[in-house]
Amino acid sequence: MSFPIDAVRSQFPSLSLLDDGQPRVYLDNPAGTQVPGSVAAAVSDCLIQSNANLGGYFTTTRKAGEVVEQARIAMADFLGAQSSREITVGSSMTDLTFRLARSLCRDFAPGDEIVLTNMDHEGNVAPWLEMAKEYSLEVRWAKFDHDTWRIEPEAFSSLLTERTRLVALGYASNMMGAVNDVAALTALAKQASALVYVDAVQYAPHGLIDVQALGCDFLVCSAYKFFGPHMGVLWGRPELLEALYAYKCRCSDDSLPWKFELGTSQLELFAGLAATVEYHAWLGRELGCDGNRRACIAAAFAASQEYEKQLVNQLLQDLSSICGLTLYGPPLGSITERVPTVSLRHEKLAPAELAARFAQHNVFVWSGHNYAFETAKTLGIEDEGGLRIGLAHYNTLAEVRKAVQLLA
Ligand SMILES: Cc1ncc(COP(=O)(O)O)c(C=O)c1O
Fold it and tell me: Could you give the CA distance from residue 177 to residue 392 in angstroms, rounded to a whole number?
């Protein structure tokens, strides 16, 4: 069955908006995706139907409790978690990671080692560097291979010692699009008895995540990158979350899933989160899946990956024929090698200049290092970063061609 691109696009009201008669071309997806109308409606309905604090006896508070629980159950399905207790929600991935790093590293001793990578977004680097300073931990850097653009297991394993306490690993690079073999790297880290914290922010819009199969201990993602509202989601092994110290109010709930959530819940965003997961399942059903929600999400990703692969391979092929461009990331590929995020530099025009020219044609792209600070430093482009074109399953070949024409 061919990918139902028209049906997909019809779910996203913002895709058909015009500015001064020009259609919008959203190629800024690694920075944030558009939302289906059902997600916006769920946020709005929640604010009207069930707007109350949690834990009371009257109608709206009971409905609010149900909204929060349904969102956690949906995220457990999305990530392959065993229970909704394993799902913690926060304002962003960065917020959750700073908080969890503080809880985790207080048990580490001076001289203990942590492994970070030069592929990761600052959200999975800075929190650990802060803790390394505070607790005198030694930081070891896993570097991406310049041929494959990913962390290779042999180089990675040489960094692990009996003092390695934690590995913070990115699933997919927000600059180069390269995808790490997280399961293989996690297995190596586990041989060294290290904890594994995975940043899946850039993988979540493109591939099915299975926390059990990955074997990691914690995994974070951000709903606004996979067609949902602005919030971060953390999955953690329940026995680890239960054992960790939580920085929290004395009288707030110390049990999961509440333990690491501070203050009043972002109720309406929980409603949007459940609707986001439902959107993925809707796509699976549209493709003919009649299984449970997780099976339909899997079917949706299987089809969108094939579709995105065609788009990104076309983009890469066309870009490679334009003189004066340097491309960063795997040259071609499927989801095991890359997500459809491409960064480039032009020999004369600065990335910001290019992004501004794209904007004149209502084509949305980002320039700069996009917080892939270590990656940009490694590539020697920390001055102005790159121009990033990031596709999602609602983009079209015509939009890809438009971007290529502009660059050409
Ligand atoms: C790979 C990656 N990790 C982490 C983040 C930070 O996410 P958040 O904005 O939810 O803190 C981003 C944001 O772009 C990202 O691309």
Answer: 12
